[in-house]
Amino acid sequence: MPEAGQTSQSQNAVRKLRVVMAQLDFLVGDIPGNTDLILEATQRAWAEHQADIVVFPELCLTGYPPEDLLLRPSLDLRVREALEKLQSAALPPAMVIGAPIRSGGLLYNAALVIEAGQIRGRYFKRFPPNYQVFDEKRYFAEGSDTLVLDIKGQPVGITVCEDLWKDGPLEDAAAAGARLILNLNASPYDIDKQARRKALLERKSRENRVSIVYVNLVGGQDELVFDGGSMAYDHSGGLSAEVPQFEEGLYPVDFLCEHHCQPISRPLPPEPQLEANVYNALVTGVRDYVNKNGFRSVVLGLSGGIDSAVTLAVAVDALGKERVRAVMMPFRYTSSISLEDAEAEATALGVQYDVFSIEPMYDAFMAALAEPFAGTKPDTTEENLQARLRGVLLMSLSNKFGSLVLTTGNKSEMAVGYSTLYGDMAGGFDVLKDVPKTLVFRLARYRNTLSPVIPERVITRPPSAELAPDQKDEDSLPGYDVLDQILNLYVERDYSADAIVAEGFEREDVDRVVRLVDINEYKRRQAPIGVRITERGFGKDRRYPITNGWKSGK
User: Fold this and answer.
1) 305 known member of a binding site
2) Is 58 a known active-site residue?
């Protein structure tokens, strides 16, 4: 195995090198299945593209993030068996894969180069991240060496994900003679992520005069969605190839190698609009969560409102109409407009649609509670009972038919606790959990450009939970255009209340919103997971204590 920085003499003649970017979806923990996927992809890359090198995403052998599966005693045995299988295949292309490797008693996030049936080199990630959703220092030690290998006659450097974002690893590989850097990634999606990646790759390739192949994971894993977006940059900082986001596939890039390894430019995909990008992330997250966890179908409450309408559309686009069931559960406060719109949505999308009134159940509960409630006035207790009855119905359908319940709460509602524990929060996956309400409206309009499935008045009429006569969301909350701006500053950017007021918002609105966010941490801890689309969602990103005495003013 070569030592750090070891290469063969480079050839003077121009040589063509074909690198295939394997942008694929791996199942966390399924080491045998992932091994077979690596072999099958490499065989196809050779048969269809005559690949010299096939580059896979970070930790593709285990899937990402494997979390505490890395602590299992059998991990080393399973990884060793997988590597033996990959080596014994002795396939013509060089494979660059990601795997957890133990060395000297420590576990490393590693990239391995397998060629001609041998592990020719291994690289240990030097900067395991420990921020936002990343928790790699819980498991992995830090590498320290540089790896530059002669692969198919060219000096190629290897780095892993975060190593590209820090100064040192790429610079060291370039100084050791690398003309081409292969960077393995499991970089989760957020709204602005691809733009930040491009700015980084442009700068790093230009400053170090090396070409970079950036290969990223695609697919959903619990709350995370990986968007792919694999790319190749030339040594002057030019984008030569880019893979469409959210699409699996094998994507070849040809390099002409002499003094530099220069990628031959390929047509670039069109820049996706934000709404299309977010919508694809939601579809990917739902599809993989449902399928990877073995659910046959999903069921959701369809209220006639915009959140459930967008959730229904995402579910159908992710799974197909045959696997989606929508249930309208009206009460005396449900408007005729809501009934009409819910039916129109279900009909337009072709899903199974049921209507079950909760009125008889509500009356039975209130009769049972008549004695303890005697002498009290109706309040949110009676409103929440409606939501909880709907939750019971949906969970019963889930139990009977093996369907996953999709909840429909958006990020704005989850932030301020505008939801009912064991009611509309009852379920297994919240599609819109990280989507602010103002963006929900934009997603609805975007989805209607594909086919008209959400009635216009669902988008334009004032949102309401319809738990009381003439109820509107803005009766108890600031307008969503104001609310979402305050939430962005407080939840995603950690501004204090005083700092938010200094941005021009009314003190009364800010204090109310901040208080609601703080006191509803206990609710969010009990909420289902959902697709993460922002830099800071409610989940691993934001970990505040439920019980605390912190004052949020300053």
Assistant:
1) yes
2) yes
CA distance 455 to 457: 6
Domain(s) labelled CATH 3.60.110.10 in the chain stretch across 16-266
Q: Is 125 one of the annotated active-site residues of the chain?
A: yes
Catalytic entry in 125, 152, 204, 433: 125
Cα 533 to its chain centre, rounded Å, is 6
Looking at domain 276-525, its CATH architecture is: 3-Layer(aba) Sandwich (3.40)
Q: Is 335 annotated as a binding residue?
A: no
SS3 category, 301? strand
Residue 359 region by backbone torsions, left for phi larger than 0, else alpha for psi between -120 and 50, else beta: alpha
Strand 118-124 with 106-115, pairing: antiparallel
Residue 225 amino acid letter: V
Instruction: Find out whether 24 and 248 touch, Cβ atoms under 8 Å.
Output: yes
Q: What six digits make up the tokens of 392? A: 């019971």
Top-tier CATH class for 16-266: alpha beta
Is 161 designated active site? yes
Flag whether 417 is marked binding: no
pLDDT 10s per residue in the chain (554 long)?
444 444 444 445 668 999 999 999 999 999 999 999 999 999 999 999 999 999 999 999 999 999 999 999 999 999 999 999 999 999 999 999 999 999 999 999 999 999 999 999 999 999 999 988 899 999 999 999 999 999 988 999 999 999 999 999 999 999 999 999 999 999 999 999 999 999 999 999 999 999 999 999 999 999 999 999 999 999 999 999 999 999 999 999 999 988 888 999 888 988 889 999 999 999 999 999 999 999 999 999 999 999 999 999 999 999 999 999 999 999 998 889 999 999 999 999 999 999 999 999 999 999 999 999 999 999 999 999 999 999 999 999 999 999 999 999 999 999 999 999 999 999 999 999 999 999 999 999 999 999 999 999 999 988 776 666 666 666 678 899 999 999 999 999 999 999 999 999 999 999 999 999 999 999 999 999 999 999 899 888 888 888 888 888 77
Residues of the chain with CATH 3.40.50.620: 276-525
